[in-house]
Amino acid sequence: MKPEDLLVRPRPTAKCTAGCPVLDHCLGGGVPCRSVTEVVGESGCGKTQLCLQLLLSAQLPPSRGGLSASSLYLHSEFPFPLRRLRQLARARPMGPRHDPLEHIFVHPLHSAHHLLDVMPKLESFVENFKSQFPVRLVVIDSIAALFRSEFDNNPLDLKRRSSMFFKIAGKLKWLAEKFDLAVVVTNQVVDLVAPNEGINGLRIGNLGCLDSSGRRVCAALGLAWANCVNSRLFLSKDKEIVSTVNDMRDGCGCEPMHCGTRRRLHLLFAPHIPDTSCEYVITREGVSGVCR
Amino acid sequence: MEVGRLPISAALKGKLVSAGYTSLSLLSSLSPSHLARDLNISENEALDILKHAPHDGRIDTSSGHHIISGAQTAWDMLHEEELLTRITTSSVEIDNILGGGISCREVTEIGGVPGIGKTQLGIQLAVNVQLPVHCGGLGGKAIYIDTEGSFMVERVLQIAEACWDDMLANNAISQNVHAGQVGMQPKDFLENILYFRVCSYTEQIALINYLDKFISEHRDVKIVVVDSITFHFRQDFEDMALRTRLLSGMALKLMKLAKKFCLAVVLLNQVTTKYAEGSFQLTLALGDSWSHACTNRIILYWNGNERYAYIDKSPSLRSASAPYAVTARGIRNNVSNCKRIKLM
């Protein structure tokens, strides 16, 4: 056994751009390789959108912040959003002979055990994949869905469940290290019923409490899983009422109101970047950060 | 003559004496290759001689009151303890409650929730150990064992640069050392961190078994950081008794390393929930038997928006807590707290 030479190790660690300079700034350059990054958020806040965008931006050359790489998308939520992916791909033309969809591999997942079964296949796939675009990005969308049905809420099952977390995370991190992969997993949130009481109110990360759509939430899968990821991002959304036109002259009394959604990305914890947050919008072209 | 009592062959004894090595203290700070060159013997033989010689000159075997070799009186131990060096954490307040920093010859466990700054503290210590003694370091190297993959070189460089800055400022004030004499650059800090990435528990155990040999060849290592000791031991164990045995074996080895080479061992641990007295409580992972394994235990926790370090277990320090902050420059004092003190 020999120590690794830190001067030879890529410095800074290779990053995969999130596809927008504002988000990249927030993430310290993008999603890091050799590391597991988790995206937490309620449904409809844009987790899958962000993942799809990563699948595309990973194919960009390093000069544009990408990894020149193919990617692997393991999904446990159905169906696979193919139409949206094509829409995003069309918004990002990469050249005449480059069809982005050719460099994205999709595999369904049905349970946590299925994921563990797929892992060795995944390894040999990444190892034997000969292309000018090697696989450098693995996305699991979502990890929470795999665990939500299979395990009961009794001590024995919870213990089995957390041992499973560490097994999966151990394998993922090993793959990430071996092949210099960026691993992204998404996670759902659960409502906090009794805030500030016992373990449920436990603070993990930079934010004192997580609010989304006016509810207090926390990341699903609990404390044990939080120990398994290297960085955690939290996506939140809130209703925002914007009055677009203040048109009271015709006196109909009905003020035209516009209901928008204010979305925010928070960095909960990461070994390499400080506490930050930024607002973002989801448009036809994809997810992009907003400077305010 | 002292060398006469070494359990080595007469021929080697003769060579030692003729080369001028008459007292054991002369052997204490030698490297095997140096000795091999001096005596014109193989490096293995030199290593064998050094193995029998005391590793630090302080243990004086010539005075006759040692009935069992290796035993010490409490008086000697007190003297040794006074000489004991500590590694600064870069937060004056944490250093204060720790009596100056993380101490050598001991195993210190640091635990806390994800994102509280365990890895940051681990990296900070791996950098600080390289500082010269008057800056709070030991001028030694660090071994960093990464089991989780949270060690980011760019962050280490950032902390090293800040540390280097502070060191220059410190030198400029004290005027003891000229900047040119320091001769250390931020990137040298990286060179002096011996980094191992460990991907399974078997690898982890193998590495820790190998450390004894590795450190005897790299005597300038002054800290071993394991980030985290826990990760691989929370998966795949059907037989919990086996896990406990493996862990306590590992803890013993680490403790032996700390004593033998006079270095600090820092183990980072995760937290878990434990069901006790009708409610769930937070506790460090790996179970009750593990809590005996470390000499010192520090728990990091959130208090409102501030990070705190708490001494949970220590044979010599009273339990106390202190706030700290994780900044771009690394672990530092909590600034808002300092302001409060000034106001009072």
Topology at a glance:
The complex is a heterodimer of chains A (292) and B (344).
Chain A: E1 15-16, H1 21-26, E2 31-32, E3 35-41, H2 47-57, E4 70-75, H3 82-91, E5 104-108, H4 112-128, E6 135-141, H5 143-148, H6 155-179, E7 182-187, E8 189-191, E9 210-212, E10 215-219, H7 222-226, E11 231-243, E12 257-269, E13 277-283, E14 286-290
Parallel strand pairs in A: 3-7, 3-11, 4-5, 4-6, 6-7
Antiparallel strand pairs in A: 1-2, 8-10, 9-10, 11-12, 12-13, 13-14
Chain B: H1 10-18, H2 24-27, H3 32-39, H4 43-52, H5 74-83, E1 86-87, H6 92-97, E2 102-103, E3 107-112, H7 118-128, E4 141-146, H8 153-174, H9 179-182, H10 186-191, E5 193-197, H11 201-217, E6 221-227, H12 240-260, E7 264-269, E8 271-276, E9 279-284, H13 287-290, E10 296-303, E11 306-313, E12 321-327, E13 330-332, H14 335-343
Helix pairs in contact in B: 3-4, 7-8, 11-12
In terms of per-residue confidence, which ranges of chain B show pLDDT below 50 for 5 or more consecutive residues?
A: 56-66, 338-344
| Category from helices, strands and their pairing of chain B | alpha/beta
Question: From the 3D coordinates, which CATH architecture of the largest domain in chain B would you assign?
Answer: 3-Layer(aba) Sandwich
- Please report the total strand number of chain B as a whole number: 13
Cα-to-Cα separation, first versus last residue of chain B: 64 Å
CATH superfamily of chain A: P-loop containing nucleotide triphosphate hydrolases
User: What topology, given as strand order, has the largest sheet of chain B?
Assistant: 5-4-6-7-3-10-11-12-13
- The proportion of residues forming helix of chain B, as a percent range, comes to 40-55%
Name the CATH superfamily assignment of the largest domain in chain B. P-loop containing nucleotide triphosphate hydrolases
The helix content of chain A, as a percent range, equals 25-40%
Strand fraction of chain B equals 15-25%
Q: How would you characterize the largest beta sheet of chain A?
A: 9 strands, mixed
- Rounded to the nearest angstrom, the radius of gyration of chain A is 20 Å
Poorly predicted tracts of residues of chain A: 247-255
Overall, the morphology of chain A is globular
Main location (chain A): nucleus
Keywords (chain A): ATP-binding, DNA damage, DNA repair, Nucleotide-binding, Nucleus
GO molecular function, one term (chain A): ATP binding
Domain RecA family profile (chain A): 12-189
